[in-house]
User: Fold these one by one.
Assistant:
Number 1:
Amino acid sequence: MKLEFGGKVALIVGGARGIGFAGAKELCEAGAKVAIADIDGKAASTAAEKLTATGAQSIGIQVDISSLESVKSMVAKAEKELGAPDIVVITAAIVDDKLFVESGPEDWKRMIDICLYGPLNVLHVVLPGMIEREYGRIVCLATDSARVGQARLSYYAAAKAGVIALVKSVAQEVGRNGITLNVISPGATNTELRQTREAAMQEQIGQEKYEARVQKVLRMYPLRRIGEPEDHASMIAFLTSDRASWITGQVISVNGGFVMP
Ligand SMILES: NC(=O)c1ccc[n+]([C@@H]2O[C@H](COP(=O)([O-])OP(=O)(O)OC[C@H]3O[C@@H](n4cnc5c(N)ncnc54)[C@H](O)[C@@H]3O)[C@@H](O)[C@H]2O)c1
């Protein structure tokens, strides 16, 4: 199945690295013009340069997804330089590895500001234009921990569960305007987000215990490997293509079979 994005404008929020960048690359290769927005503006520009070096049209934009004003200027810049976004993918997130009883209001606030207010801000800014143009493809990244729970990830999981509910509800409101919204729910995937958490774990429990843990985790995955960003990029491309025009409000786990909710 060949997916075509010729002439389409995509905005990847949190796209400087990891799953977002893999998605940006996939969309560019299929002909989309891609704005890469990230809190790390320099990394966003470097990521965009990598794509333009392949002949694609791409720009980097600095944004803090937790600020509505910053999100407004991100969308204005993308529109001015590439055109109004037809496709928006929200991957920006942070993760905290903490027992709930050891966490506090400052941890929860930071998490909810980025992982729940972030998508609220982006959807609120991009939807009016999409409604007017009668077209939009939106994908938000959640996590399987929001679907089945996960120790040490309680408030991250809670924020992401909010994103799932948001996407399902808004999908019901704007389907009549030719807009689809879906969620990709990843299992463990080999990106900096995971690598940082794993490095801290290794430091905490020591090499021998850590290696045993790695094997235990792999046994939890029927496909016996953790994910790569490209595993999600194919799903991002499919869900944002016109081949997925009758799919909305869905949560699709891309997770090697880790859970089957
Ligand atoms: N990697 C995994 O194992 C895994 C598992 C489940 C879910 N996810 C989800 O997938 C998505 C992508 O994760 P990833 O692994 O590629 O992460 P990553 O950390 O590699 O990339 C996330 C990007 O978001 C950016 N970002 C962070 N805070 C931001 C902010 N306030 N404003 C704008 N950008 C910001 C970071 O700079 C980074 O470039 C996230 O939503 C994450 O929750 C990842």
Number 2:
Amino acid sequence: MLPRGLLVMGAAEPDPALAGLDARFVTSSAQASKKLGSSSAQDAKGRFPAVLVCLPRSKELAQGWIAEALQRTEGEVFVDGEKTSGIESVFKALRKTPELAVGEAISKAHGKFFSVTGSAEALKEWALPEAPHEIAPGFVTVPGIFSADSIDLGSRFLVENLPDLSGEGADLGAGWGYLAANVLKSARAKKLHLVEDDARALDCARLNLTDERAAMVWADALEWKSPRLLDFVVMNPPFHSGRASDPDLGRAFIKAAADALSPSGRLVMVANRHLAYEPKLNELFRTVTQIAVNSHFKVIQAEAPNRSKPLAIKRQRR
Ligand SMILES: C[S@@+](CC[C@H](N)C(=O)[O-])C[C@H]1O[C@@H](n2cnc3c(N)ncnc32)[C@H](O)[C@@H]1O
């Protein structure tokens, strides 16, 4: 039985097992925050009777959260995770730490659940760095966000082949802001909405882009409504749900881009060569052109969204 007043770190959605508990959910995902409702926060200060860590896929982040959880409670820390998130190795590493008491693991279909108690000191090497670190001149990141250790090769290829973009636009899935920073090198870009699900990535983007034309938006790009129809959208869309490849997610981003654009607007995107986005692009845009390709990636420009039906919500045209 989990104690009342529990802190739940990294929950993606309300767990039926937690229903009825006055748990506080901490999540950096805009999508998860919406599902979890008003009891969610990006950060929760203070100490709690117990903490449940829902293991993220990033090893550094998983270790950092467990270390933090031990600091946040004098009670138990519960760890819940899938095999694909490395729960087995986390369990083994904690069991080998003599200062900690680790309970028997309850094995689930694809994962484990167990408790840990002990001093946070024992895991001080797991603690997350206090400040973001610089991975390229002028760009900082934190562990666990997309492309935390280096500039993504797809985004780099897009930047190398970026056409001159003018007016107001958006970067859907803006991450820590590499693509956006390069879009804003053009004085003709008047405003750029950086729409990103991961608040930790967006916090880095805030440090990486101090340009006042950049507007940071913590939101699900598939639900976001641009304040007006846009002149351009750039993106390197995600195509994984968990670890599984999910090109439909990329296609949903293409639809979101088409909906956000003005009738003469254009989308410029990069994708892995093998991803078949062209049928969706041809369905939603009047002109689709591959403007660059290399052995891994293609850059596609799609112009003039092809709206057979009016948008459900009419937005102001500029
Ligand atoms: C391939 S990365 C592109 C990063 C970035 N544009 C760059 O400059 O490298 C895709 C990004 O989309 C974000 N993302 C995934 N699903 C999302 C969603 N539904 N809404 C907004 N962002 C999302 C991920 O967190 C990740 O940062």
